[in-house]
Design a protein that fits this description.
The protein is an alpha+beta fold and 168 residues long. It has helices at 2-44, 53-67, 102-110, 112-124, 128-131, 134-151, and strands spanning 72-75, 79-82, 90-99, 157-167.
């Protein structure tokens, strides 16, 4: 009787090993099938969008027309701050912000303090060599536009114009 129990235990271990092997095969096949399906959908199963070039051109023209609307300029007070680096230099900037529409103009009036703070932080991190050239000023303009657009909800800054730019 004891010998029969010993013989049955190894059979149970062998059956569980076969069971795990079969389970592994089934799970492996499922993952391979899912992976094959994903590859097919990403490459071979690609279908071209049903949008025609004429429709896209029409939407582009409508968008250009909406941009041609009357933009509004917001003149900001002078900003005077120090530039980064040695020797210490001071910069004074007068700028006008061109907003895309009236709605943006009203919003920039409400967040003028935040806009000034954002501009001051951007300028404070600049060195004289960064703003000395025309390319540096253009880069500064783009950074200021991005900084202001970051916290505007509905308005969009179209451009910034430096009306006075003095470094001492």
């Amino acid at each position: 009787m004891a010998e029969e129990e010993k013989e049955e235990k190894p059979k149970a271990k062998g059956n569980s090993g076969k069971l795990f092997a079969m389970l592994f095969v089934v799970v492996n096949l499922a993952f391979m099938g899912a992976g094959s399906y994903w590859v097919y959908m990403q490459t071979l199963g690609y279908e071209k969008p049903m949008v025609s070039e004429d429709e896209l051109n029409k939407e582009l023209e409508e968008f250009k027309e909406s941009l041609r609307g009357e933009s509004v300029l917001f003149a900001m007070d002078s900003l005077t701050t120090n530039l980064d680096g040695i020797p210490r230099r001071m910069i004074r900037v007068d700028l006008s912000i061109e907003m895309l529409d009236e709605e943006g103009f009203e919003e920039i009036i409400g967040v003028e303090a935040e806009a000034r703070d954002s501009i001051m932080r951007i300028i404070n991190n600049k060195r004289f060599s960064d703003v000395e050239s025309v390319q540096g000023k253009l880069k500064l303009k783009n950074e200021i536009i991005t900084g202001i657009n970051h916290f505007l909800q509905t308005g969009v800054v179209k451009n910034i114009y430096f009306t006075d730019f003095l470094v001492q």
